[in-house]
Amino acid sequence: MLVFALDDERIALENLTDAIKKALPKAELHSFRTAEELLAFAADKVCDIAFLDIKLRSVNGLAVAEYLIERNAKVNLIFTTGYSEFAPSAFALHASGYILKPVTPEKITEEMEHLRYPLQENRLPRVRIRAFGRFEVYIDGIPASFRYAKTREFLAILVDQKGAMCSNGTLTACLWEDDDPGAHKSYLKNLRSDLVNSLASYGCENILARGKGTIGILPDRVSCDYFNYLQGKSRKGSIDDYRGEYMSQYSWAEYTHALLENDYMLQDLS
């Protein structure tokens, strides 16, 4: 569980951080004194819960919340502030909670019991991705369907990028290789929308991280043979082992395939 904490007052942030650690001892917590620091850190990460002060010296805490929602529509926002008048604006963003300072572990524990969106911890991923062999996506054991055939390839590129945020330029270069990039701008937008909307129809859109002109997959929210292999979880004899094929229907996957082949040969020699 990834948690962000934001408050531009040093003592207030220390109190908030201490309260979160006591209430959520197993959480991966990152604290920030400025909105700019949080936004920079969140560029390639998606949090599960964000504790945000509202009245900041620079960027308003509500604006930070809007950015986090754009990255992950099911982020749990808990505002921590000394001003009750901001509550209507906070809940207009579908906040999970609103804590008036001083923040205490007891107040955090109470808000955790009423989160708007369930956390992913202790639940098996609903999305299973097969990259070894022909690329395929399964949701609850059934092959996922998309409006466009290339939407599946769009997702395959995100998997190949191993969770890194992928730009429109990278996606276009893979999907249409030597074609004029500008000729497919509208189609690329349709593919992105189809991917997001299709996953949303299954209730699985939270496997994606989204930014302006970028998109990525969150590896810890899916089950994927390729990710398992990279993490050393897959061993020879496993059904998910690499056996000489990787996303075999896509020519752009040959580069990663070559790396896998070389790695596999080295393992045989060791």
Produce the secondary structure layout:
Blueprint: E1 2-6, H1 10-23, E2 28-32, H2 35-41, E3 49-52, H3 61-71, E4 76-81, H4 87-92, E5 97-100, H5 105-112, E6 127-130, E7 136-139, E8 142-143, H6 149-160, E9 166-167, H7 168-176, H8 185-201, E10 208-211, E11 214-217, E12 223-224, H9 225-230, H10 254-269
Parallel strand pairs: 1-2, 1-3, 3-4, 4-5, 6-12
Antiparallel strand pairs: 6-7, 7-8, 9-11, 10-11
Description:
By secondary structure, the protein is an alpha/beta fold. It folds into two domains: 2-112, Response regulator (Rossmann fold); 127-269, Winged helix-like DNA-binding domain superfamily/Winged helix DNA-binding domain (Arc Repressor Mutant, subunit A, Orthogonal Bundle). The protein contains ten helices and twelve strands. The strands form three sheets. The protein has a five-stranded parallel β-sheet, with helices on both faces. The longest helix has 17 residues, at 185-201. It starts with a strand and ends with a helix.
Question: What is the number of helices?
Answer: 10
Number of β-strand runs: 12
Gross CATH architecture of the largest domain? Orthogonal Bundle
Q: Portion of residues in helices? A: 25-40%
Superfamily at the CATH H level of the largest domain?
Winged helix-like DNA-binding domain superfamily/Winged helix DNA-binding domain
Task: Calculate the terminal CA-CA distance, rounded to whole Å.
Answer: 36 Å
Major beta sheet summary: 5 strands, parallel
In total, the number of domains comes to: 2
Uncertain ranges: 234-240
Assembly type of the chains comes to single chain
Shape: elongated
The CATH first-level class of the largest domain comes to Mainly Alpha
Element-level helix/strand string: EHEHEHEHEHEEEHEHHEEEHH
- Average of pLDDT: 87
Strand order of the largest sheet: 2-1-3-4-5
